[in-house]
Amino acid sequence: MREFWIEFENSITNVLKEELLRVSKDLCDVIVLSEADIHLGKSYTNLIASPVDGDIQIIEEEMINQIEMLKRQQKILCLKLLVKDRNDEAKAVKAVESGVDYIIVICPNWKIIPLENLIAKTRKKVKLLAEVANAEEAKIAVETLELGVDGVVLKTDNPKEIEATAKVLKNIVSFSLIKEKNRKMELTTVKILNSKQLSMGLRVCIDTCDIMTEGEGMLIGCQSTGLFLIQAEVEENPHVEPRPFRVNAGPISLYILDSDNKTRYLSELKAGDEVLVVNREGYFRKVVIGRLKIERRPLTLIEAEIDGYRIKTIVQNAETVRFVTKDGSISVNELNQDDKVLAYRQLGGRHFGVLVQEESVIER
User: Fold this and answer.
1) Contact assessment for residue 266 and residue 174, using Cβ atoms and an 8 Å cutoff
2) Which CATH superfamily is domain 3-177 in?
3) More confident residue, 44 or 27
4) Which of 12, 44, 100, 130 could cross-link 141 (Cys pair, CB 3.0–4.6 Å)?
5) CB neighbourhood size of 26 (10 A)
6) Contact 153, 132 (CB under 8 A)
7) Is 308 left (phi over 0), alpha (psi -120 to 50) or beta?
8) What is the rounded CA–CA span in Å between residue 321 and residue 160?
């Protein structure tokens, strides 16, 4: 979990500062306060960062040469640094070598490249925090260079911005942390009952802004209670090049499992939306949609069974559409009765995509 710090403008009223402190109490890790405002934060459980009398001591650029001396006093130190060019980046590296614990970087002009450089140079040596003005900037900072900064310092006078930024940090996951336990879902094996060729219909190819690998795809189906793992077009074949950015998902009316455990209709998706990519072990990540490709194609109905319950999906009748199994994948044209493929089973109804487990629903 990325650290969430909040800093208040000195010019705002004490009444507003108190309100911001109340909102921040259960959402952030550290409050950055001036010496004059230390007393306001003492009644809250958050750690306090301040130039004096805080749990973490804030130091400015001119104090870099004092870091080693301050560390001998057993202080937790946080350097606040304005980064305008490579010389400032070098100052940050020097501070790391001197033993500073945190660095808050303020990037007034270029916001991405300086963070990329500092993440590469200081990773695992210091906790790097980026000062941000809103939730959108926070999201960029924690995703920069795939790894992201270790946290953000939100400078705001808006309680709603605190809540929005906290939500962003809670949901974010860097590329390197995809296999955390809390980023995994439980997939199950279902037995194929039959397949049936259908006539033409509009099917959706979901082209993403990422690359998927063997065993990765998206969870799609006719019923929200049973979604099949359809593999991306990653397999080599004699006739077309692999398209590892694409999942040939099926007709526009089908469900797809989206973020926050919600379902959406394929017809609702558009460029810029985020969807889940899942692998056969159940690990998942979010990817951005680059385009939807909707065309009229011949279709095939697939029916499977789990614990006496029948689930269905419809896909394009094409060899490149493959269902993920425990140790490989099977083309829709090669599926036979009693073959076993992977699916996601979740009981309950859906209300505008949100799971309502207590609701009974009939889907055929």
Assistant:
1) no
2) Aldolase class I (3.20.20.70)
3) 27
4) 130
5) 10
6) yes
7) left
8) 44
Closest Cα partner for 59 from 102, 30, 24, 20?
102
Establish how many alpha carbons lie within 13 A of residue 4's alpha carbon, considering only the half-sphere containing its beta carbon: 25
Residue 67 has pLDDT above 60, yes or no: yes
Q: Could you give the count of Cα atoms lying within 13 Å of 359 in the half-sphere of its Cβ?
A: 12
Q: Are strands 102-106 and 77-82 parallel, antiparallel or unpaired?
A: parallel
- 139: region left, alpha or beta (phi > 0 left; psi from -120 to 50 alpha): alpha
Provide the residue ranges of all domains of the chain, joining segments of one domain with +.
3-177, 183-356
Q: How far apart are CA 191 and CA 336, in angstroms?
A: 10
**Start-to-end CA span in the chain (Å):** 41
Separation between Cα atoms, residue 66 and residue 57, nearest integer Å: 12
pTM above 0.90, yes or no: no
pLDDT in tens, 169-211: 887 754 444 444 447 889 999 999 999 999 999 999 999 999 9
Q: Which two tokens stand for residue 208?
A: 């993403």
Q: Are 165 and 132 in contact (CB under 8 A)?
A: yes
Residue 152 structure tokens: 């953000």
In three-state form (DSSP H/G/I as H, E/B as E, the rest C), the secondary structure along the chain is: CCEEEEECCCCCCHHHHHHHHHHHCCCCCEEECCHHHHHHHCCCCCEEEECCCCCEEEECHHHHHHHHHHHHCCCCEEEEEECCCHHHHHHHHHHHHHCCCEEEEECCCCCCHHHHHHHHHHCCCCEEEEEECCHHHHHHHHHCCCCCCCEEEEECCCHHHHHHHHHHHHHCCCHHHCCCHHHECCCEEEEEEEEEEEEEEEEEEEEECCCCCCCEEEEEEEECCEEEEEECECCCCCCCCCECCEEEEEECCCEEECHHHCEEEHHHCCCCCEEEEEECCCEEEEEEEEEEEEEEEEEEEEEEEECCEEEEEEEECCCCCEEECCCCEEEHHHCCCCCEEEEEECCCEEECCEEECCCCCCCC
pLDDT at residue 260 tops 70:
no
Level-2 CATH architecture, domain 183-356: Beta Complex (2.170)
